[in-house]
Amino acid sequence: ANGCWVLFNRAGNTLQLANDASTGFSAPVTMGTPSTLSNSQCTLSAAAATVAVNGNNLTVSIPISFAFGFAGVKASFALAYDSSLNSGWQNTGSWTVPASGPPAILSATPASGTGSYQTFAVTVADGGGPAAISVISFLLSNGLNGANACWAIYSKAANSLQLANDAGTGLLGPITIGSGSTLSNSQCTIYAATASVSSGGSTLTLNVPVSFTGTFAGTKSAFALVYDTGNLNSGWIATGTWTVPGP
Fold it and tell me: Which among 163, 162, 168 has a CA at the least distance from the CA of 147?
């Protein structure tokens, strides 16, 4: 009860999270999908969760963000079942949840791919909850450089998007999410009409539809940055790559 209890089901390749009272579990979400699960203690991100098999070993990696209200030193335990036997609960260590701290980038999906149009989903977290998030930046470029790039900026307070100009020295817009507006530079166009924002637990997910020009062709690096209302930030985090086809 009042814990962060995650179930992984190998047959379904899914994750579930216990409720606060530990009397039931959430509906399952599939590993690798842009989904999150939350209770009052933690939020897990399925998008960046992975499973790896090496010989007799199976390793499950689950990105988790914690609410500041869950602060303190927590004991960690694990239990594994096969078709008929189980390990029993094993103490695996401890983890200290801070009472405050900067926001974090949990994932950006897809992590890779190719195409002239794509909706990118950036999931961020803050221990103070989604209300503490203020700005998200998402950058596609030849390295960490705002010039001649596709650099979108989301403002939570205004529920708006902006796009950097070609030189990376100023911003176009803003346009309100859900409106029929677009913003374009020589590299890309972003669309407010089908952009969206969702939140749950300590996380917020921004969905930004982007189309690319043929002159922006090539493999681009993707980066994300998040600020909270206290002006703390995650720093730029590399989130993957995207290949823009030629004309």
Answer: 168
Closest CA to 224 of 66, 106, 48, 67: 106
Cβ(139)–Cβ(150) under 8 Å? yes
In whole angstroms, give the CA distance from residue 198 to residue 203. Answer: 9
Rounded (10°) CA dihedral 239, 93, 89, 3: -70
Whole-angstrom Cα distance, residue 103 to residue 198? 16
Of 48, 80, 87, 85, residue with least CA distance to 64: 48
Q: What is the pTM of this model?
A: 0.84
pLDDT at 20 over 90: yes
Instruction: Tell me the per-residue pLDDT of 180-217, one tens digit each, with 9 for 90 and over.
Output: 999 999 999 999 999 999 988 889 999 999 999 999 99
Peptide bond into 174 cis (omega under 30): yes
Distances (CA, A) of 147 to 117, 153, 169, 170, 190: 21, 14, 8, 10, 17
Tens of pLDDT, residue by residue over 101-142, are 999 998 899 999 999 999 999 999 999 999 999 999 999 999
Phi, psi of 69, rounded to the nearest 5 degrees: -70, -10
